[in-house]
Amino acid sequence: MTVVGSLRVVEAGARVYRRTWRGSVISTFLNPILYLLAMGIGLGELVDEGSGGASLDLPYLTFLAPGLLAAAAMQTGAGDASYPVMAGIKWRKTYEATLSTPIGVPELLFGHLGWVTVRLTFVSVVFAAIMTLFGATSAVEGMLAVPPAVLTGLAFSSLVTAYTAKLKNEMGLAAMFRFAIVPLFLFSGTFFPIEQLPDYVEPLAYITPLWHGVELCRGLALGLEYTVHPLISVSYLVVLIAVGAVLGVMTLRRRLIA
Amino acid sequence: MANPLVSARGLTKHFDELVAVDAIDFDVQEGEAFGFLGPNGAGKSSTMRMIGSVSPLTAGTLSVLGLDPARDGPQIRARIGVVPQDDNLDLELTVYENLLIYGRYFGLSKAVIDGRVAELLRFTQLEDRRDSPVDPLSGGMKRRLVIARGLINTPELLLLDEPTTGLDPQARHLLWDRLYRLKQEGVTLIITTHYMDEAEQLCDRLVIMDKGKIAAEGAPRDLIDRYSTREVLELRFPVGTQAVNAEHLDGIAHKTEVLPDRVLLYTDNADHAHSKVLQAGFEPESTVSRRSTLEDVFLSLTGRTLVD
After folding, report:
1. Distance from CA of B271 to the nearest CA of A (A)
2. CA angle at B67 for the pair B64 and B72, rounded to the nearest 5°
3. Residue B43 scores a pLDDT above 60
4. Is A229 on the interface with B (CB under 8 A)?
5. Under CATH, to which class is B6-219 assigned?
6. Does A97 touch chain B (CB under 8 A)?
7. How far is the C-alpha of A26 from the C-alpha of A33, rounded, in Å?
8. Do B147 and B178 touch, CB atoms closer than 8 A?
9. CATH of domain B229-291
10. HEC secondary structure over chain A
């Protein structure tokens, strides 16, 4: 495994993106605007005027925005590790082409995750800028939430890549979005504090990676008190990235060079 | 003789229970065009992936360019070219971008790649397609682009897995012409194919593979001389009566083979055999006399046809 090899894969990702970026413009720019409008402002006004305003102790839009940033990073990370990876393995077989050059499986995987990191950074910075334009946070607060958002997205990307490499077809991808990504999006503290959940469900939220990401983004951007120590959340996400990477090398090897 | 470019002894590949390649031995010399001829599932592609230093061996030894694929995979892959069975191109990119990205994987500079792209597109007759997207290109053009891509690192050895499968006759002949030129330039070629005409056209030497094993080895002409007669008379009888008629053809030829749609008589003189068939009162619906091919060699070795 060489760093140079991985960087060449990152470079390839960038060159492909120069052709295909149009397809991701809507999810990058329009989704944050739509969500912040509908949830942050539309729903937010009701929350702020009702009992929610008192218990949150800050405008709902401000509460929501950093959590939504973490959730958007999750979706980008999982998205880039699902259909594009399936295309590389099975539909276009471009991974097969890459592996017939000096590039090996670990370089392919780390290059892929490296490119996802670049994408996540871009998407998160755009999101933070839109948050700021909406007046949800200051520019500095918004940017503070970018690194934990990238970390969150990467944890998902790493795990989902390993998962995709095991799948025979895309059915499993649709199931993953339906039964994992969407529930996480809704119940990991993005839209409401998990204390609102029934007591017996609450501990479940602590093991979801998105909740840790949301906590970190919100804590860093808004200076709120953390439920668990932030280093625990960071370590948890880093461990997930490492586990996903190890599993990813194993599953890709099995799939591509067996 | 100089050291072979590729040398395999007891080369074996298992996929779980399945034995894809079963302890085969072969040597490929520098500058020759070497073929693996056999039906689908014979183990040709698995062998190619091991030579390409992508897929690890299950057992046996393999040396490629004097190096060990298990240890020196990246160094070997840097010096060989691979033309895979599927056109695994990036369809969203242009012809040029596909070559650029692939060339960068070898660590070639953009300037070097640009120079080679011009030359390779001329060679594969894709000059005017440099900036076209790949998706709308014809099958033959995509195949030629994959060959150009496989040559971007000026390889000493080019691996071609079923290079003309799915192409129309005209596109095949153009491709064969290009491969022939490469050979003349001294590039060593290893080709897998299940087309006997392709093997006869391109290969100096070949092995016939069946069920993971090598059934025979030699130059195309030698194999035909060794395992078949000079000529073949094909007789087509009414549907369902091939076997019945064949039973009574004994003695006319050295050997008789019954296929579902025709009977083959192996003989040194097909016209002579034809007269005897007619004299004996047989009334085939049609007859063809021809020279023996590698298809006949395969049939004689395995009792089956190459393409089913």
Report:
1. 51
2. 110
3. yes
4. no
5. alpha beta
6. yes
7. 10
8. yes
9. 3.30.70
10. CCHHHHHHHHHHHHHHHHHHHHHHHHHHHHHHHHHHHHHHHHHHHHHHHCHHHHHHCCCHHHHHHHHHHHHHHHHHHHHHCCHHHHHHHHHCCHHHHHHCCCCCHHHHHHHHHHHHHHHHHHHHHHHHHHHHHCCCCCHHHHHHCHHHHHHHHHHHHHHHHHHHHHCCCCHHHHHHHHHHHHHHHHHCCCCCCHHHCCCCCHHHHHHCHHHHHHHHHHHHHHCCCCCCCHHHHHHHHHHHHHHHHHHHHHHHHHHHCC
Q: Are A134 and A36 in contact (CB under 8 A)?
A: yes
A22 contact residues in B (CB cutoff 8 A): none
Picking from A136, A154, A138, A142, the residue whose alpha carbon sits closest to that of residue A217 is A142
ipTM: 0.92
Interval A120-154: pLDDT, tens: 999 999 999 999 999 999 999 999 999 999 999 99
Distance CA B34, CA B22 (A): 19
Closest chain A residue to B74 measured between Cα atoms?
A102
Nearest to B77 among A92, A101, A256 (CB): A101
Q: Please list the residue range(s) of chain B that carry CATH number 3.40.50.300.
A: 6-219
Q: Does B78 contact A at CB distance below 8 Å?
A: yes
pTM of the entire structure? 0.92
Helix, coil or strand: residue B33: strand
A195 or B187, greater pLDDT: B187
Domain with CATH 3.30.70 in chain B: 229-291
A257 backbone dihedrals φ, ψ, rounded to 5°: -125, 5
- From the list A8, A93, A258, the residue facing B105 with the nearest CB is A8
Is A217's pLDDT higher than 70? Answer: yes
